[in-house]
């Protein structure tokens, strides 16, 4: 399993409750481009359309060879996700709970297939995010002082 792209902002903005694995429906040029790490999950999200169809919205897959890409190729088109019926029902049930959302975490390859990790997540509040930043700063400062003492 090799990770092609990761949505680092999702782990900062959301509290991850559950993770699902979904297949990603791509065209030929998109699959090759994604396998060459030309995919961006920033500002993307998962939506459930009518008929319980789950799609990935606003994920950017840049063309592998821009000169050879079709003229009507859209970088951030909506892409369908593949899940089993049981997983779709579970995901729908969890999303109907209060203030939960589905967020893409990372794109990776598994047995030459492009997969997507979807997280059922709860949004963090602003004070929770500030607390995390404060804790990181303190940890960094402690690490610096420990390494400085080791060199003296």
UniProtKB/TrEMBL annotation:
Organism expressing this protein natively: Candidatus Brennerbacteria bacterium RIFOXYD1_FULL_41_16
Entry-linked Pfam families: SmpB
GO biological process entries: trans-translation; trans-translation-dependent protein tagging
Gene name per UniProt: smpB
GO cellular component annotations of the record: cytosol
Keyword terms of this UniProt record: Cytoplasm, RNA-binding
Family: Belongs to the SmpB family.
Protein name from the UniProt record: SsrA-binding protein
Function: Required for rescue of stalled ribosomes mediated by trans-translation. Binds to transfer-messenger RNA (tmRNA), required for stable association of tmRNA with ribosomes. tmRNA and SmpB together mimic tRNA shape, replacing the anticodon stem-loop with SmpB. tmRNA is encoded by the ssrA gene; the 2 termini fold to resemble tRNA(Ala) and it encodes a 'tag peptide', a short internal open reading frame. During trans-translation Ala-aminoacylated tmRNA acts like a tRNA, entering the A-site of stalled ribosomes, displacing the stalled mRNA.
């Amino acid at each position: 399993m090799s990770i092609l792209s990761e949505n680092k902002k999702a782990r900062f903005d959301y509290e991850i409750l559950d993770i699902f694995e979904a297949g990603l429906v791509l065209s030929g040029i998109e699959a090759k481009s994604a396998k060459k790490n030309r995919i961006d999950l920033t500002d993307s999200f998962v939506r459930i359309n009518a008929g319980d169809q789950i799609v990935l919205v606003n994920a950017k897959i840049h063309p592998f060879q821009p000169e050879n890409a079709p003229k009507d190729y859209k970088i951030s088109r909506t892409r369908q996700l593949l899940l089993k019926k049981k997983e779709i029902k579970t995901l729908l049930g969890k999303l109907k709970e209060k203030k939960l959302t589905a967020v893409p975490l990372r794109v990776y390859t598994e047995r030459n297939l492009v997969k997507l990790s979807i997280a059922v997540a709860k949004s963090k509040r602003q004070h929770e995010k500030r607390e995390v930043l404060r804790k990181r700063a303190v940890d960094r400062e402690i690490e610096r002082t420990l390494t400085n003492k080791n060199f003296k």
